[in-house]
Amino acid sequence: MGIPSKTRLFIDSLKSGPSNGNRPLFLNEKGAIEAKWNNLTLSSVFQPIYKSNELTKAFAYEAFVRCEHANGNQIGVNDLFSKNANQDEITGLDRLCRTLHLLNFTLHDEEHALLFLNVNEGLISAVGENHGAAFRKVIDALGFSPSRIVIELPISLVKDSKRLHFVLQNYRLNSLEVAVNIEAKDDLASLAERVNIRYIKIARSSLQTHGNLTEELEKISQLSDSANIIVTKNDALLQEAANPKILLQGNAYRIASGFQENALTDASTTSPRLFISLHVGG
């Protein structure tokens, strides 16, 4: 499909704006948008998220960045950000990644699917106030609905109620939805009591019990009236789960049974070196 007109205009505006060697965005030979950052080429991959009662169509996608050095080596996201300790550089790189993913997402006709983007702990510390304001300008420039963006907060914020409330309020003032990652199921009850959250993400390994996992998830989903529980890192299908408040993500759901792989899903997402979590925010 062709590039949407507002996306094309946005790319053209970047080309005609002030020169910045760190942030050129360009179209590759396959029609995807990539970015240059120093000696790195940044590109996008996406992993689908399904409602457990509707596995024939993705409810959302989580964006990930692939980083490749000029010498062909793959670079992990931790290395990418650790080499840019300066807060201004972290902010610039973070916003470049966020823009790159949104641009690529607009190239696909995904109707009302949501886009999940992670926020880096360092970026939250660097941005003192009005989290999401800068990114909202990009969203508006592309004519994208801000209600389809979900910002994922790091696990570290779960224990800090004051910062969590502040960041949540900021993003919501900019009409951006929020997801929170937790380490253990015991954190869910505490979190549900303190804040009203729409999406809570937890790795499947943190839920393993000697009992029935599906029954355990049903109980957990009842702890909050508003939260949807997203079970991540599923390497095997979760049988008999059919609750609209339970969502599923991971390699097992990269291609659901009975339909073709989605155009936004990259075939190399099973590789930990190539499928790297995007750190965004601001």
Structure in words:
By secondary structure, this protein is an alpha/beta fold. It has a single domain, classed as EAL domain (TIM Barrel, Alpha-Beta Barrel). Helix content is 30%, strand content 22%. It is built from eight helices and eleven strands. The chain has helices at residues 5-16, 77-82, 87-106, 121-126, 133-141, 161-173, 186-194, 213-221, and strands spanning 25-27, 33-37, 40-51, 60-69, 114-118, 149-153, 177-181, 199-203, 228-232, 246-249, 276-277. An eight-stranded mixed barrel has the order 3-4-5-6-7-8-9-10. A hairpin with an 8-residue loop joins strand 3 (40-51) and strand 4.
Overview features:
282 residues, 11 strands, TIM Barrel, globular, alpha/beta, 30% helix
Helix content: 25-40%
- Number of structural domains: 1
Give the full name of the CATH homologous superfamily: EAL domain
CATH architecture: Alpha-Beta Barrel
- Note the run of SSEs as H and E: HEEEEHHEHHEHEHEHEEE
Strand line-up across the major sheet? 3-4-5-6-7-8-9-10
CATH fold label? TIM Barrel
Taking all Cα atoms into account, the compactness measure Rg is: 19 Å
Report the portion of residues in β strands.
15-25%
Q: Which spans have pLDDT < 50 for at least 5 consecutive residues?
A: 256-263, 266-282
Number of strands: 11
CATH class: Alpha Beta
Largest sheet: 8 strands, mixed, barrel
How many DSSP helices?
8
Taking the alpha carbons of the first and last residues, their distance comes to 31 Å
Categorize the overall geometry.
globular
Decide which structural class fits the backbone: alpha/beta
Mean pLDDT: 78
